[in-house]
Write a structure and sequence with these properties.
Elements lengths: L5 H9 L8 H10 L8 E8 L11 E5 L10 E4 L2 H9 L4 E3 L1 H8 L7 E4 L4 H5 L2 H4 L17 H10 L1 E5 L5 E8 L4 H17 L10 E8 L5 E2 L2 H5 L1
Parallel strand pairs: 3-4, 3-5
Antiparallel strand pairs: 1-7, 1-8, 2-6, 8-9
Helix pairs in contact: 2-8
């Protein structure tokens, strides 16, 4: 094994990497292990005992984090004129239709979430090549294709996130920023985990939550004890 970096040595003094910590301790340790000058995101990674290639074991959904993500979410609403005022009143950053569809076709994706209505999904569907790889495609399952655009905008701005198991069976989700109080990080992470438990596919056999870890953008992954996390 090569030389440990200064940061790795510092982490090794604080964290026992063979130990799974109670969720509250893990949240506090993530904050302690942050050593960079910017306000890092705090992420949770959960390895699930599912086979994501099988449709009946796909885990995806949304969760409203009680304390938000700490990020400013830029929202574009693609809708007909009759819904524009509702979207603006709810706090959407961009509202319109054809001009934004043309901008996206030209490569513009300076947004975090797109919300649209069922009536215009035909037009939005044509943007799949641009939006799909960036995870921006609106989807009824994540609440981003809806007639209630005002509520959808407010939910997203308040900290509603969506997640989907990747091909390795792992869920990644942001649960806040290092500047958050450890208790808020713990409560946000707990909300993600209890949502995942509710979404357990009946076809998933054996252990459902294989492992859980918390980490900041530049910090180490800290193992979380599953019993504490889902109690």
């Amino acid at each position: 094994m090569g030389q440990l970096t200064k940061n790795q040595k510092a982490y090794a003094e604080k964290v026992d990497f063979d130990k799974a910590y109670p969720l509250a301790e893990a949240a506090a340790l993530v904050k302690e292990c942050s050593s960079v000058k910017f306000d890092e995101s705090v992420d949770i990674a959960v390895r699930l005992g599912v086979d994501p290639r099988k449709a009946n074991q796909m885990v995806r959904g949304t969760v409203s984090l009680p304390h938000g993500t700490g990020k400013t979410v830029r929202v574009l609403v693609l809708c007909n004129p009759d819904k524009e005022q509702e979207a603006k009143d709810a706090g959407a950053d961009h509202v319109g239709l054809d001009e934004y569809i043309d901008k996206i076709k030209g490569g513009w994706t300076d947004i975090d979430v797109i919300i649209t209505t069922p009536q215009v999904m035909g037009k939005v569907g044509a943007l799949g090549r641009v939006l799909g790889p960036r995870g921006l495609m609106p989807n009824p399952k994540s609440g981003t294709v809806t007639m209630d655009v005002g509520k959808a905008v407010q939910d997203v701005k308040a900290g509603k996130i969506d997640f989907k198991v990747d091909k390795y069976g792992i869920i990644h989700a942001s649960v806040g920023k290092v500047s958050f109080d450890a208790k808020k990080l713990e409560e946000n992470a707990h909300e993600v985990l209890s949502t995942l438990m509710r979404l357990k596919p009946s076809a998933a056999k054996g252990t459902y939550m294989m492992s859980i870890s918390l980490s900041s953008t530049m910090g180490p992954g800290i193992k979380v004890d599953q019993k504490s996390a889902t109690a």
